[in-house]
Structure formats: C-alpha cells, structure tokens
Amino acid sequence: MSGEARLMWDDGVTRYNFGPGHPMDPVRLELTRRLVGAFGLDRRIEVTGARPAGESTLQLVHHPDYISAVRAASEDLRHGLEHYGLGDGDTPAFPRMHEVSALIAGLSVAGAEFISEGSPRHAVNFAGGLHHAMPGSASGFCVYNDAALAIARLLELGMERVVYLDVDVHHGDGVQAAFWNDPRVLTISLHEHPRALFPGTGWPEECGGDAAPGGAVNIAVPPGTSDDGWLRALHSVVPELLEAFRPQALVTQHGADTHFEDPLAHLALSVDAQRGAMEACHDWAHEYADGRWLALGGGGYAVVDVVPRAWTHLVATVAHAPVDPATPTPEEWQQAVYARTRAGAPQRMTDGRGDAGWSSWEDGYNPADPVDQAILATRRAVFPHHGLLP
C-alpha cells in the first residue's frame, strides 16, 4: 500500500439521495467504490474516513442561517425553504440531508488537511466536488460546497496560494463565488459555454473581483467539443497560469458529465480524454505544487456506463497505480452492476479512443475554430493580469 495517497471514503455518502428519478443517483458512488475494490486499488491506497464537517468548519464558506436552514429541511421535508434553494426543483430536501452533506464535506476537508501536512501528498474524494453550492444557498444538486471548504481549510492552515481546477461540464460557479475577491486562490473552470448550459455563468470576462483581478479563469467551449479540442483548451491555458501563480496545493474537480453519453450536457468526450486530464493534473501537482493534490468527483449522470470507470481511473491515478485502458472490467463487478441495476456493464476501461491526441497552442491559432476562439478569449481576458502574453 502506498503511503503517498488516501482515498477518502465512508459508506454513508451513498445516503446523499434526492429520491427516485433524480439524475444524481447515489448508485454511481456505490458502483465506483465496487469497481475500485474489484481492481484491488483499495490495497494500493489507504482508505480513510473522516468526521462530518462541524459548524465552525462549514462557516468557513457557508452563512450560519443557511446551515440552520439545511438542518431544518433535514428534519421537516415540508419546511418551505425555497429561498435557500431547498425546494422541489434541482435540490430538494431529503432525510438527514445535513448529516450526509456534512460528511461529504468532512471527507474533502480531511483530505485537504492530509495534503497540507505533506503526508500523504495526494488525496481523493470522488463523492465530493459539489461545486454549485453557494455561501447562502443550495444549487444544482449541491448542498455544501466541499471543494470551497477544502480550499478554505488549506488557507486556514497557512497556505498562501491555492489553485482550483474544475473540468466538470458545468461552470464551477460556487467555488468561484467563494473566492471571487481572494487573491490567494486562483479558480480555473473549463466547461460548456454558458449560453448552452446551467448555471449560465463562466464567461471568459468573469476574471475576479477588484481585490483579485485575474483570480477567476473561465474557458467556455462550445457544445459538441470532443477530446482533442477539449484537451487543447486545457493545455493551452492551465500550465502557464500554474507556472505564474506558483500554487502550494492543487485542488481539482473531475465531473464525468463531459462524456458523450451524459444525458444532461452536450460535450462529446470519452473516458480516455477524461483520464488524460487526470494524468495531466497529477503531473501538474508534482511540477507546480510540490505534489500536493486533492482530487474530487463532481457531476456525472451516466451512472453505470461512465461514472464508475472515470472515477476508478481517478483513484488509480492518485494511487500511482494506473489501470491500462484496454483492461476488461472485472467479471465480479459486471455481475454486481446487473444485480444492482439490471443494466449491462461496460466491458472495458476505455471507449476505444486510446490516448486522446491534442495539439498545443504553440502549433498555431485557427481563427475559424470555435474552440480556438474560446481559448483566445480566455487568454486575452486573464493572461495580462498574470504578466503573460495572450
């Protein structure tokens, strides 16, 4: 077992359940954990629990009245709390909502504490990445913003520069809002264009408050973007900013809803491109952040075919035990998938695209390419704030 990494896990996270028919089915967490075990990855990484985040920790990001509202909604599902985003829409109340949301937050905060101490260097909580929750309200299936809370804990422990990188298909709006005016945090979000998708924010011109100009970075790619364009956008913006900002820790969010099978969005990525981004984040953590890396899950609503494979690759990458994409999924896991969902399981850990290719920004700008237009818009909006040329 590697002492360099922790998998933050508690079976209780599967109680994060908005009810039948809701897209955020907790079976995705259960099946991911089973696939991690079927590959023996839980023998290559230390599996660690944590206490739920307490009141003082939650208040690092969230308003006290909102925390009280979540508690109230957990105890009385009929309580009218639409003002706090806890109505009958995307984020309805469910029993013990406060407790399980605080547990997920506690796992991410504990992971942040581990990497701050430097042993282990890496931690992963694929139940986390609930990046839409705002300081005073729930949003987009997210109750407590564990990503923002983990970053706030790193700052509380004395870190002066933290980078948050979000590759979910949706804009990481809650984390951006939490640190809009904090020059210690650089938030970077690569997402589908806000004209096409919730939450309608994440334009390249959104680049930080008066106290932190250039502190928010938004790369908004068009619907239909596939592996090569998406990876080109990632690599054309992120490494130069990391080198300029010199983070002491890297926190990344790996929503699997960029996949071509995801029912709620319109990008066209494969598991292979998602895995490529995970490997890049691992490399960047070592190159720019002294190896300190906290990796989180996020969205992802193809709960059988995509999410378990994507996040198993994430755990494997964090554990320094990568799974060959050509590897068949274990028979025991395929049987468990059928028993649990009555659906057939994917047969391999790849979508057959191999190592997704991409061309670097230095290879030339194509003014007719909408992805290149998106990249250039971001570079023009943000790079000068960091002393970089667009």
Automatic annotation (TrEMBL):
Residues 22-317 form the Histone deacetylase domain. Pathway: Ketone degradation; acetoin degradation. It holds the Pfam family Hist_deacetyl. Residues 342-361 are annotated as: Disordered. InterPro entries: AcuC (IPR003085), HDACs (IPR000286), His_deacetylse_dom (IPR023801), His_deacetylse_dom_sf (IPR037138), Ureohydrolase_dom_sf (IPR023696). The keyword Membrane does not apply. Gene3D superfamilies: Histone deacetylase domain (3.40.800.20). CDD domains: HDAC_AcuC_like (cd09994). The keyword RNA-binding does not apply. Keywords: Acetoin catabolism. PANTHER family: HISTONE DEACETYLASE HDAC1, HISTONE DEACETYLASE HDAC1-RELATED. Belongs to the histone deacetylase family. This is Acetoin utilization protein AcuC. It comes from Streptomyces sodiiphilus.
